[in-house]
């Protein structure tokens, strides 16, 4: 079944709905997003940090009026941290309560019933993937999948192929409606082909000058068009410099807002240097940029 229903009859309509949330996308991204909804396929987004991959999932949830469930990947994450776990402290308290009642002579505890009760729904801690299957329709964001290992990828591939999981103590949980799944990767390593084959794929670049100015004006309408253009022009120059971490769109927005808050009406060397920490987050990058601001702003 199509997840999008009447919400987005075309890529153009999806782009329009995303734009209403403040997320401006190009035709290619709108098309692959629309197809992911129509075909009920996960969408894998790769790109440099700060290009708007996570923001797309957030905007998609808002545009579709669906809850957003986020799974943040990290080195060493395993299936239990994505799927479910048992509430051990509450289980121990339950056991002590049963023992107390049995020891007082006021009741008799059947061992088998106690064991079954320990692994019942009341003690289940649903993690993001299980929550998405149970609560769908939702948008499930699997963020920075490239930070996880091969074993975790294999687990995700199985779940995304069937949209169901088996809990030995409770049985099989299936999604009545497949969740909208967005995976992101900063490409610190290659995602395996098997997972890529399950997904629709799109590489997100930093936006061009005109679109990034439009993003700033859309997300921060208090910023003048002149200041927005000056900040974006400088940021785009910085992305071509040899920096440890080039600023993304989020840093562009932060920088423009910071300049507006200190009353700057245009970007000059002094105001840029004073607010540099909103966009540049490494000491060596900051030193290099401060030394080049005169030249960059003179262009």
Automatic annotation (TrEMBL):
GO MF annotation, one: ATP binding
SMART domains the record matches: AAA (SM00382)
Positions of the AAA+ ATPase domain: 39-219
Highest taxon of the lineage: Bacteria
InterPro entries referenced in this protein's UniProt entry, alphabetically: AAA+_ATPase, ATPase_dyneun-rel_AAA, CbbQ/NirQ/NorQ/GpvN, P-loop_NTPase
PANTHER family tied to this protein: MAGNESIUM-CHELATASE SUBUNIT CHLD (PTHR42759:SF1), MOXR FAMILY PROTEIN (PTHR42759)
Stated name of the protein: Carbon monoxide oxidation accessory protein CoxD
Source organism (scientific name): uncultured Nocardioidaceae bacterium
């Amino acid at each position: 079944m199509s997840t999008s229903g009447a919400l987005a009859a075309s890529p153009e309509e999806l782009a329009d709905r995303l734009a209403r949330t403040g997320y401006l996308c190009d035709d290619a991204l709108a098309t692959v997003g629309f197809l992911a909804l129509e075909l009920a396929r996960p969408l894998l987004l790769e790109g440099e940090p700060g290009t708007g991959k996570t923001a797309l999932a957030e905007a998609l949830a808002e545009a579709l009026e669906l809850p957003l469930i986020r799974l943040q990947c990290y080195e060493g994450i395993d299936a239990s941290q994505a799927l479910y776990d048992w509430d051990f402290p509450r289980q121990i308290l339950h056991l002590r309560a049963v023992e107390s009642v049995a020891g007082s002579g006021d009741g008799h505890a059947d061992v088998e019933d106690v064991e079954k009760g320990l692994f019942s729904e009341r003690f289940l801690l649903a993690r993001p993937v299980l929550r998405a299957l149970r609560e769908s329709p939702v948008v499930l964001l699997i963020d920075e999948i490239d930070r996880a290992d091969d074993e975790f990828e294999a687990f995700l591939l199985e779940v995304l192929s069937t949209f169901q999981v088996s809990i030995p103590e409770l049985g099989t949980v299936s999604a009545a409606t497949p969740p909208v799944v967005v995976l992101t990767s900063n490409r610190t390593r290659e995602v395996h082909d098997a997972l890529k084959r399950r997904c629709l794929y799109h590489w997100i670049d930093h936006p061009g000058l005109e679109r990034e100015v439009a993003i700033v004006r859309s997300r921060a309408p208090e910023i003048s068009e002149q200041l927005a253009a000056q900040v974006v022009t400088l940021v785009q120059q910085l992305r071509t410099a040899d920096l440890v971490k080039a600023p993304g769109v989020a840093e562009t927005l932060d920088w423009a807002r910071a300049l507006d808050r200190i009353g700057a009406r245009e970007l000059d060397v002094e105001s840029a240097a004073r607010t540099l920490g909103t966009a540049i987050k490494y000491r060596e990058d900051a030193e290099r940029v401060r030394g080049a601001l005169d030249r960059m702003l003179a262009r």
